[in-house]
Write a structure and sequence with these properties.
It contains two helices and four strands, in the order E-E-H-H-E-E. By secondary structure, it is α+β, with helices and mostly antiparallel strands. It has one domain: Translation Initiation Factor IF3 (2-Layer Sandwich). Strands 1-3-4-2 form a four-stranded mixed beta sheet. Strand 3 and strand 4 form a beta hairpin. The protein starts with a strand and ends with a strand.
Length: about 110
């Protein structure tokens, strides 16, 4: 499956729009990561635990979006975007979405 942030795929044209494909992952902070983040907040530096948490969320949201597009019989997702939001204190959602399409050669 082609997944692109562009609104087109070079050398291809959109034969059919299948719909909006989407996927999300909601994660909560871990107490151990909070303690480490608090210390880093004092001295500065990357919050590696949170970086890892967000990366895992992005990967999972993208996998779910791709599965959603496959159910629509799409062979590509274009104009892919990510967004985050706080669901409740200490809990965040990573949301991934794009336009599921069927492509053909130009």
């Amino acid at each position: 499956m082609i997944v692109a942030t562009l609104d087109f795929v070079p050398g291809k044209k959109v034969a059919r729009i299948c719909g909006i494909a989407q996927g999300s992952s909601v994660r909560a902070k871990h107490v151990g990561r909070d303690i480490a983040a608090g210390i880093k907040g004092i001295f500065g530096g990357e919050l590696a635990g949170y970086t890892e948490l967000l990366n895992e969320s992005r990967v999972q949201a993208m996998e779910r979006m791709t599965q959603h597009a496959q159910k629509m019989r799409a062979d590509a997702i274009i104009n892919v975007r990510f967004t985050t939001s706080e669901v409740m204190p200490g809990t965040a959602e990573m949301f991934c979405y794009g336009t599921a399409v069927l492509l053909q050669d130009e």
